[in-house]
User: Which sequence fits this backbone?
């Protein structure tokens, strides 16, 4: 169960690049501490019940990914509260979180440990992961030597070993070629049938329609709609086709 | 943020602890492999820099400005090898945090595991270096009873260095030029620690100041227990307390900022 109440997130974006101590001292001296407040999320409240498959849609920059990152505890909320009663597993843009200089094997064990798996458990899962990702021959290759598609496959193969009852999925179903994405679809249907709670961010309305019972529509950091997939997708298309806000 | 029911809280904490220990081990194993496995000379590389420094300072302080310190080669080696660990540990913490920035944007885990893992990797080199130093002392001077106490100052060195690593990593998260600033500061620290010279040659006013530096005390103890066979309980206890305090302070500072670090990269 996920319960979000009045959640807001403000990013302070400096006008100039001010990542160094030197720049900070200079700007302190000139007494201009300039930054812009960007409301990535504004006063968001919603609930997700156990076993629901909820889609999150919205244009680029509407706050979907920030929302998932806050649910995954990667970012801290500026105000409001998030309550999650179960273990969560975030699948945020697969593969990119790997350590490029580690080997495939080290990455698998590292990710396994981040998922809370012991080394012994990972020894058991290792062959399945290698098989699912079709990377058996590359176990000791450094990840940077692998193609993007291969990395994505590996990420997905590791992620689906998670037993967490809640999954946060960000735009990851479009992985690999048609054979692999068919495999992924089977896995996701399996998740759905076994009653996992899933929050899925996607720009692919076909995917949203296929899996979700309910859809959250976001725009400009606000939750502007919540309801049946077809109705929300209709609203989303209106937003996309409407002239851009100034 | 994620609520836990009170009766299960303790079980949760135990499970979390076990999980974090596993993460630290996996990170340390991969780091270590990265550091040593893929290079033909492996561990030798990490010795090359201190060895070269040793040769240079040995030449300078025996031929150009002859030092009156007894057993100067051992004295110098003890200083340089242990200073090398301090430098390695603090820089690795910052590099490692930077190197894991992708990871921390994808999945939640306590960022302190990164610092613990990089410190463990560095400590392995320190242990090898300590064995090398002991062998040198046995060879050049012979065994002394106090050698059994050597693990104490080595642990102090690790505690102090890891504490500093936590403080620097916190600063580094906010200010990316911390690693450059530290690059200059370690050079200063090199010369305000008794590495190539002894504190006793300094005027009283300055030597009091130098004793404020915990490295002075730690290097002193390491030399007492490998070369000079000198024991002072108060000096030892003060150094242990000092190192523990720096470690605790560093860890607490890092923990305070831990949850914001992912947003800063």
Assistant:
């Amino acid at each position: 169960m996920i319960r979000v109440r009045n959640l807001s997130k403000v990013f302070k974006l400096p006008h100039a690049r001010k990542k160094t101590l030197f720049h900070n001292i200079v700007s302190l001296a000139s007494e201009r501490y300039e930054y812009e407040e960007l409301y990535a999320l504004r006063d968001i409240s919603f609930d997700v019940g156990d076993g629901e498959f909820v889609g999150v849609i919205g244009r680029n920059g509407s706050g979907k990914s920030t929302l998932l990152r806050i649910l995954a505890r990667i970012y801290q909320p500026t105000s409001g509260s998030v309550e999650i009663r179960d273990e969560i597993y975030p699948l945020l843009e697969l593969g990119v979180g790997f350590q490029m200089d580690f080997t495939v094997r080290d990455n698998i064990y590292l990710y396994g440990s981040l998922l809370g798996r012991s080394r012994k458990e990972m020894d058991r899962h290792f062959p399945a992961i290698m098989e699912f990702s079709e990377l058996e021959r590359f176990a000791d290759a450094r990840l940077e030597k692998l193609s993007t598609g291969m990395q994505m496959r590996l990420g997905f193969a590791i992620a689906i070993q998670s037993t967490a009852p809640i999954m946060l999925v960000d735009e990851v179903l479009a992985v690999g070629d048609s054979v692999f994405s068919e495999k992924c679809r089977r896995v996701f249907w399996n998740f759905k049938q076994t009653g996992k709670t899933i929050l899925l961010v996607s720009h692919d309305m076909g995917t949203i329609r296929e899996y979700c019972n309910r859809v959250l529509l976001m725009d400009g950091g606000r939750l502007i709609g919540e309801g049946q997939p077809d109705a929300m997708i209709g609203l989303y298309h209106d937003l996309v086709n409407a002239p851009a806000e100034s | 943020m994620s609520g836990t029911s009170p009766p299960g809280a303790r079980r949760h904490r135990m499970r979390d602890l076990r999980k974090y220990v596993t993460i630290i081990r996996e990170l340390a194993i991969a780091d270590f492999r990265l550091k040593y496995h893929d290079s033909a000379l492996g561990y030798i590389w990490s010795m090359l820099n201190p060895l070269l420094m040793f040769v240079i300072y040995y030449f300078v302080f025996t031929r150009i400005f002859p030092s009156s310190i007894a057993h100067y080669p051992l004295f110098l080696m003890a200083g340089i090898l242990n200073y090398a660990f301090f430098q390695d540990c603090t820089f690795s913490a910052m590099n490692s945090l930077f190197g894991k920035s992708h990871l921390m944007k994808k999945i939640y885990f306590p960022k302190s595991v990164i610092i613990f893992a990089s410190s463990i990797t560095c400590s392995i080199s320190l242990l090898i270096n300590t064995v090398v130093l002991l062998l040198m002392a046995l060879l050049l001077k012979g065994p002394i009873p106090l050698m059994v106490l050597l693990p104490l100052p080595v642990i102090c060195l690790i505690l102090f260095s890891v504490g500093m690593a936590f403080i620097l990593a916190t600063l580094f998260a906010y200010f990316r030029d911390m690693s450059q600033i530290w690059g200059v500061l370690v050079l200063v620290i090199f010369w305000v620690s008794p590495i190539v010279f002894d504190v006793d040659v300094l005027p009283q006013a300055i030597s009091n100041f130098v004793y404020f530096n915990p490295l002075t005390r730690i290097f002193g103890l390491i030399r007492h227990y490998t070369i000079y066979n000198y024991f002072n309980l108060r000096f030892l206890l003060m150094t242990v307390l000092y190192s523990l305090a720096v470690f605790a302070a560093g860890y607490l500072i890092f923990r305070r900022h831990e949850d914001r670090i992912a947003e800063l990269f």
Notes: Strands of chain A lie at 2-14, 35-48, 53-58, 79-84, 88-92, 166-170, 197-201, 214-219, 222-227. The CA atoms of residues 41 and 93 of chain A lie 20 Å apart. The longest strand of chain A covers residues 35-48. Chain A has eight helices and nine strands.
